[in-house]
Specification:
By secondary structure, this protein is an alpha+beta fold. Helices cover about 30% and strands about 25% of the residues. The strands form seven sheets. An eight-stranded mixed beta sheet has the order 1-5-4-6-3-12-11-13. Strands 7-8-9-10-14-15 form a six-stranded antiparallel beta sheet, covered by helices on one side. The two termini are about 45 Å apart.
């Protein structure tokens, strides 16, 4: 269960971000969480705060840090909003002493949303017979509902609506002799995706599910160690990237060193391919590849597959930028910043009026009219989800005087929801689930619309022969409908899997 509330810092600025999820100007898939942990350095929580700041793109709703110091025990602070607004004051950071700490940034994919959800903010904490443990989880548990029902029937009292809390209760009921073994025991009951950073009084623990759906990396920080969702967070604290935690691996780090275990049945890895397309920061390294270079390669493949005569290639900021550069380099069509992003969009409109809400995407993006007027424009974006943002951007480009608008999308059509840690609309809300490519083009009212093929995407991420359907290297369920783990809870609620012959 979560830690004693007397030790939890109250939220500094609770606010409801639900309108951001539903508004037209935020029509993007949302990554679930980012996790970070440090052991063996003084003021570990300060390093965790910096790491979480670098991982802010993985979750902006809330964040939390748990630390341990032998003199004061476990301490926790959990807040709504950005890391920079909550974990930069000396007053707060002094409440989180010790040489070991873990943290979490959250975009909720399960659990309560809104200002009452402080109970769902991680890391979670449990007090066991052999001592306390805190856990931060990136991913989604696809059998959480059935586990929760079982645990409640057996007497567990849940303090949150998060699927991640199931792990704490399973650990509490385990009969294993220490916390790492209890965690192994608990995770054997769990289905879905999990990259976890956890801590005891003396140990930092990292573990990935057997498919390795979500990323987790190991870094060296002086005499200490760090675990992170991405390498970019190691860079910000000056840590050296050592290696990725392997799918199905658990590492237990103490002052004496690192122990590595593989407690789960070996499976073929299925890393989320959308991490390459959109979720991860472009300055991170995934699978030994620069995310930026991969996205540029996606743009090159897109230009090979779907050329068009035009005057300018313009990215939809910011995630479309590397792919637009690649498209420009391959096609020879000049690259231009035709759309400018407002970097300070965020808390300015915490409680917007209805009039401001209706301004939609214009709060976030503005067209560089001097460049666009009279031009045939190729707009490169990372994805099309509901299509609402794409329509508004197209209208802005035409209002600025563009003669033609062509969309090129750096991912295949997103036709299936993700159940492994991404906040995806229901399938009937996904444009590609109900329309053909030509119907989508007509719906968006653009001169042309083309998506990169699934084979092209695989080539861009380093699979020279494209996607081998008999042995796929990635989880691409959001494009293909082929789920590596059956989403049992969703099927209980009526979700229908893709027929085998489809």
């Amino acid at each position: 269960m979560p830690m004693n509330t007397s030790k939890i810092m109250p939220p500094a600025h609770p606010f409801d971000t639900s309108y951001l999820r539903e508004s037209d100007h935020d029509d993007k898939l949302k990554e679930e969480c980012g996790v970070f942990g440090v052991i063996g350095v003084a003021d570990a929580s300060n390093f965790v705060a910096l790491g979480l700041h670098a991982l802010q793109h993985r979750g902006q709703e809330a964040g939390g840090i748990v630390s341990h110091d032998p003199k004061v025990g476990f301490q926790s602070a959990r807040r709504f909003g950005y890391v920079r607004d909550n974990f930069t004051s000396q007053k707060i950071m002094e409440t989180l002493p010790g040489e070991i700490a873990i943290g979490h940034v959250r975009y909720s994919t399960s659990g309560t949303k809104g200002p009452t959800a402080i109970r769902d903010v991680q890391p979670f904490f449990g007090e066991f017979a052999m001592g306390g443990a805190a856990i931060a989880h990136n991913g989604n548990i696809t059998n959480a509902n059935s586990l929760r029902r079982e645990l409640i029937e057996r007497g567990s009292i849940f303090q949150s609506s998060s699927d991640s809390e199931c792990i704490i209760h399973l650990m509490a009921r385990s009969l294993q002799r220490n916390i790492p073994e209890r965690m192994e025991d608990a995770l054997r009951r769990v289905e879905g995706a999990f990259s976890i950073v956890a801590m005891t009084r003396t140990k930092l623990i990292g573990v990935r599910d057997p498919l390795g759906v979500r990323p987790l990396v190991l870094g060296k920080l002086g005499d200490g160690w760090a675990l992170s969702s991405e390498t970019c967070a190691l860079d910000i604290i000056g840590a050296e990237f050592v290696r990725e935690i392997e799918p199905g691996e658990m590492v237990v780090i103490t002052p004496k060193g690192i122990e590595s275990h593989f407690p789960f049945r070996r499976q073929e890895p299925r890393f989320c391919i959308f991490e390459h397309v959109y979720f991860s920061r472009p300055d991170s390294i995934l699978g030994g590849r620069s995310v930026y270079e991969t996205r540029e390669a996606i743009g090159r493949e897109l230009a090979k597959e779907s050329p068009v005569e035009a005057d300018l290639v313009c990215p939809v900021p910011d995630s479309g930028t590397p792919a637009a550069i690649g498209y420009s380099l391959q096609s020879g069509i000049p690259y231009a910043m035709g759309i400018i992003r407002n970097q300070y969009m965020g808390r300015t409109f915490i409680e917007p009026t209805e009039q401001i809400r209706n301004m939609g995407v214009r709060l976030k993006l503005n067209v560089n009219r001097a460049l666009i007027k009279g031009k045939r424009v190729i707009l490169v974006d990372d994805s099309v989800v509901r299509g609402t943002t794409s329509r508004k951007i197209k209208e802005m480009i035409l209002d600025a005087g563009a003669s033609e608008v062509h969309f090129r999308i750096a991912s295949p059509p997103t036709a299936w929801p993700c159940f492994y840690g991404v906040d995806t609309p229901q399938r009937d809300k996904l444009l590609a689930a109900t329309m053909s490519e030509e119907e989508m083009r007509e719906h968006l009212n653009v001169d042309s619309l083309k998506f990169i093929s699934l084979d092209g995407l695989y080539r861009a991420v380093g699979e020279a022969k494209g996607r081998n359907a008999k042995c796929p290297q990635y989880c691409d369920a959001c494009f293909s409908g082929e789920y590596p783990v059956i989403p049992s809870d969703q099927m209980d609620q009526g979700f229908e899997m893709k027929p085998a012959a489809e």
